[in-house]
Amino acid sequence: MRRRLFNFVSAAFFLLVFVIGLASCHKGSEGQMKETADSFAVAYFNWQFQKALPYVSPGSAPWLHYAASQVTQEDVDSLRAMSEGAGCHIESLDYADADTLATVTVSVSHFLSMDTIGRPSHVVDEAVYRLPMIYSNDQWRVHLTALPRAERAVGG
Q1: Continuous segment of H or E residues that includes residue 131
Q2: I want to staple 37 with a disulfide (CB 3.0 to 4.6 A). Which of 13, 57, 66, 104 is the partner?
């Protein structure tokens, strides 16, 4: 009797551990996702759109081309006048229900923010962005369906 009870409890325990393990599995590595999001954010918020291209999904490239086409000489002069570039910090990762989709929340500091067409860019002290991520071909990539927009900004 004891042996049966022990076997039952052991089986239930291992089943529980297995189910929890499956529930917490996500595609790819969290480290690779963070590295991709950080590299994209550093390039993008320093207006190095060409350097941001390797970190986005193929369908996202037109958004970077669009951003680059909106840069004016005044923007270039403002970027050159800045004493330091944009700084980025990954705040959190949130996986969607599907294991191939996630969102990375990134805090960006001291950067030149592109404004609406026809208006000059301006320096923002700090803002928070949520970058959509997609896992494809064994890699996490930023998946843009629009230009990144600040969730909240502090100063600037």
Answers
A1: strand 122-136
A2: 104
C-alpha 27/C-alpha 55 separation (Å) is 17
Look up residue 60 and give its DSSP letter.
G
The pTM of this model reads: 0.79
How many CA atoms does the CB half-sphere of 102 hold within 13 Å?
A: 26
How many H-runs (helices) and E-runs (strands) does the chain carry?
Answer: 5, 5
Q: Is 149 exposed, middle or buried (0-12, 13-18, 19+ CB in 10 A)?
A: exposed
153: tokens are 């900004």
- Separation between Cα atoms, residue 46 and residue 142, nearest integer Å: 16
Per-residue model confidence as pLDDT tens digits over 80-135 = 999 899 999 999 999 987 789 999 999 999 999 987 666 778 899 999 999 999 99
Q: What is the pLDDT of residues 36-79, one digit of tens each?
A: 999 999 999 999 999 999 999 999 999 999 999 999 999 999 99
Q: How far apart are CA 19 and CA 94, in angstroms?
A: 20
